[in-house]
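Worked example 2:
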Amino acid sequence: MKWNHKYYKKLQIGIDSVCLLLSLLLAVFIKKGGFVFPKTFYDFSFIFLLLVIWFLAANECRLYRNRINKKFPEEILYNAYTNILFLILVSSFLFLSKSVYGDYFRFSHFITIHFFVSIALKYFIRKQQHSAFAEGFVYDALVIIGYNATSVEFNKTISENLYYGYKCIGFIDENNIEAPGMPYLGRVQDLENIFKQQHIDEVLISLAHHEQATIRKCIEVCDHYNVRVRIMPKLEDLTSKTEEIDTIGLISVINLNILPLDKWENKLLKNIFDVVFSILFFVTIGFWLLPIIWLLVRISSRGPVIYKQERWGLNNKPIICYKFRTMYIKDVQDSFDQTSRHDPRITPLGSILRKFSLDELPQFWNVLKGEMSVVGPRPHPTPMNIASMETVNNYLKRHIVKPGISGWAQINGSRGEVRTHQEMEQRVNFDLYYIHRWSFTLDLQIILQTIIKMLRDQGAY
């Protein structure tokens, strides 16, 4: 069955409408001690106005973009942005109009109820949709044009993660290549016949830049048959280039390799957030949790509580990274060797701290010192850097920003022991993607996802 993206947007709008009305009813109930239902024309007009303001805020915050294939923390953040803007707009209206409806409910109750109810309902719906994807009941039939490393990796991703909602019908290439899991459908000139023979929802073009004529021909055929078409850049382009589009007159020009954190305003925002977030951690959680962990480490095994390790920070400069010691003191000298599952060097308490990443908490002090960031590429020990800089492509580029306590690689599964060269390449690619695609929203998403990972992930040991 075809997956309809328009249906997803309508479903989101319907959920928010119901949640808005339900939250308003509950907020009035809390204030008045009983249910008060709309009766007059003005009551219904006020409710209609709330709905209009909500959807104006949602449109401004891009709430209803298709995020079914994205991680749920991203949807939580955009819901939060919309609620904040909605709060500002409605509060301004109630204040300026001196509306009597401000006495019917507390707006803080209304916003809080609406946020959590809508998030819970959207999460439930999302899980049902992902289940339908995984069971194969609903999917988009996909054809890939171009056989290369990028298209193979993409097919592997959607095949291993069925909840993305794609099913690869096959691939088109000038060469008849046998590829596992990707049936060969023919050449580009056969694209029109393929559309006539079977239903295709989307075409993904993975061709080299110099094949512009072929790309244009594919787009024209797809437009004629009203098939959604997208162009997929090479893997190396995702992690080595940043695009910024400017308009000069009627001409669009693309600026390449301008990093988001090269802009002083983005760098200032990130630095302020790092300091504020670290201070909040120490005054809310750290002041009681860190002493407890310190005491447990002290009494559970002999040796210093805090383990200091040299790692590389911004511009390859060595920094001293702080962690709670998780190994027996006699094995600390060998701790440059990566840990493995059931590593005998790790103390019983250390295995618990590592499982939930609690051993990394002292690094908030590194953040306050300006050596690290809350979010960024994880710093590696000096021996690992020396061993990787000659063998891993673009390895040192991950040090053009401050290292972080958590990062994009960690929440995408590249966490814990690096067993192969390919795993290190993948981790570096995640780090470079983060550097070239940085945004404040992305940092917040990584923090939310890190908290979730701490509670359920088994990747680190």
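The chain is about 50% helix and 10% strand. The chain has three domains: 5-134, 140-232, 264-456.
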